[in-house]
Design goal:
224 residues, alpha/beta, Rossmann fold, 8-stranded mixed sheet, 8 strands, DrpA_SLOG, DNA processing protein
């Protein structure tokens, strides 16, 4: 586990970003993934539908094709599919977890988490043995939004914790893309996000919108 490299990363954040960033970030793996290229968070339901699975796979594969690092939260469902797809297609992935690095949630993702820590990048803002509470995961979402140039919401319910990620992305000035199926389900928070700048991702425009995602977190002149 390391934390020293984050001090340099933190010093380059804008004032707004520093207010929304953890003061320490614990990590295992390749920290350069947090400093180079574009990163996009792919998030959504834990109990993902068959269509949601296919959509996640398609999006993550396209991100890899465009040399974009796939970021997600190592939860079951959309998160796991996004990570595994990036790995399967020789892309890069970052796992942002709501537990300390030495804990696993869900335990079924232990092998995946260990692989990401060894071959990619695993990060947490919680020190070892820090107690895990339900609040840990919305806090994690803020950090995931912070390190990503954009967030894509693939599938979600009205009560989904995914909404925390969406609001944090918008608050930080990051691009937020919501798949049209979420809007078709009349999810109220998703509809509200459109009025704050979120965009609808469709089968027709997803390639264009993903290719157009700006470098918001590595080319500092683009931020705010």
């Amino acid at each position: 586990m390391q934390i020293s490299t984050f001090n340099d990363y933190y010093s380059k954040l804008t004032t707004v970003e520093k207010k929304n960033s953890p003061k320490e970030l614990f990590y295992k793996g390749d920290f350069s993934l947090l400093e180079n290229g574009r990163r996009v968070a792919v998030v959504g339901s834990r109990k993902v539908s068959e269509l949601g699975l296919k959509r996640t796979h398609k999006i993550a594969r396209f991100l890899v094709k465009n040399d974009i690092t796939v970021v997600s939260g190592l939860a079951e469902g959309v998160d796991s599919i996004a990570h595994r797809t990036a790995i399967d297609f020789q892309g890069n992935t970052i796992g942002v977890i709501g537990t300390p690095l030495n804990k696993y949630f869900p335990i079924e993702n232990k092998d995946l988490q260990d692989f990401i820590a060894e071959k990619h990048l695993l990060i947490s803002q919680f020190p070892e043995n820090y107690p895990v509470t339900p609040k840990s995961f919305p806090i994690r979402n803020r950090t995931m939004a912070l390190i990503s140039d954009a967030t894509i919401i693939v599938e979600a319910s009205e009560k989904s914790g995914t909404k925390h990620q969406g609001w944090e992305a918008l608050r930080l000035g990051r691009q937020l893309l919501i798949m049209e199926n979420v809007l078709n389900d009349n999810i109220s928070w998703a509809e509200e996000m459109l009025s704050y700048g979120a965009q609808v991702l469709t089968q027709d425009n997803f390639e264009f919108l993903i290719e157009s995602i700006p470098f918001l977190t590595t080319k500092r002149e683009y931020v705010f």
